[in-house]
Each structure stands twice: as C-alpha cells, then as structure tokens.
Design a protein that fits this description.
The protein is α+β, with helices and mostly antiparallel strands and 158 residues long. The protein is built from 5 helices and 4 strands, in the order ααββααββα. The protein has a 4-stranded antiparallel sheet.
C-alpha cells in the first residue's frame, strides 16, 4: 500500500465513525456541552452551557460550580435565539441596535431573545439547523469565543 491508499482508508474510517447529526440528541448535546465546559475551564470562565433542539428547547444545560445565577437564563436565551432567528447572537447584535432593522427585537418572544454574543446555531447533516448553543458566564468576548469553539467542535469533531 502506498501513502495515498493508507490516507484514504484512514479518512474513510474516520468518516464512518462520525455521528449522525440529523437531529439533536441528548448524547450529542451532552458531548458538546462537556467539550465547551472543558474549554471554559481552560479559559478560567465559570460558564453555563445550553444546547437546544431545533425548536429552541433545552436538550442539555450544564452549570459549572460557582457560575453566575443569571447565566442560566442568559445561556438558555442564547440557545433559543440562534434557533429562532437562524443566526449567531453576535451577528444579531448590530441589527438590534437603535436605528437598525431589528431594534427592539429583544422585547419579543416573551423576552427570550438575547442580543449579545455567546450563541451559535448548529447545522446538521441535512443542512438545516438542528439546535442551538448558548454560553454565558464570562465577558461577551469570552462567551462568543466559547460558542464559536463549540460550533467548530460540533462541525469537525463530532
């Protein structure tokens, strides 16, 4: 066997090991939340992570010890927002500012819309959004970095 044949076998094996991501399952949500919490720990952020299903309902919520109480609602709100509006919360932020096209949107949906960074939609194998990821506990920059990490983890390592 040459190197190209071995590489193809390895790639085919890895591809066959990838999980079915046609719907958000508890197993997927748990693995993703755990990965984000591990990264939060490395960053020194006491985070709350919420992974929602395609309807924006929490599938898994994990809270690090000594995380802010308020972070629970914020994380679940971010996971809902990204599914409801089909965009990351950091992309929504400029659209929700005074004078912008979605100004005031945070007052809709019973106040569940969050207009600052830390949330990303999760796209499944079928190309549609199968869930949302919301992270809260750090600065906006830290939450945004953690949700981006989670989205990349979901897309490349799961």
């Amino acid at each position: 066997m040459n190197e190209a044949e071995i590489r193809k076998i390895v790639q085919d094996t890895i591809s066959s090991m990838k999980r079915d991501k046609s719907a958000m399952t508890l197993s997927l949500a748990d693995e993703l939340a755990d990965a984000v919490l591990e990264e939060a720990g490395r960053m020194g952020v006491k985070a709350v992570v919420c992974v929602s299903d395609a309807a924006g309902n929490p599938k898994a919520v994990k809270v690090m010890d000594d995380a802010f109480l308020a972070s629970y609602d914020v994380a679940t709100g971010k996971a809902y927002t990204v599914v409801a509006l089909k965009m990351s919360t950091i992309d929504l932020k400029p659209l929700a500012q005074p004078g912008a096209s979605l100004y005031g949107i945070q007052f809709t949906n019973s106040g569940r819309i969050v207009i600052f960074g830390g949330g990303d939609p999760l796209v499944g194998d079928n190309g549609s959004i199968i869930g949302g990821l919301g992270v809260s506990g750090g600065t906006e920059e830290q939450d945004t970095a953690l949700s981006a990490y989670g989205k990349e983890y979901f897309e490349t390592k799961m």
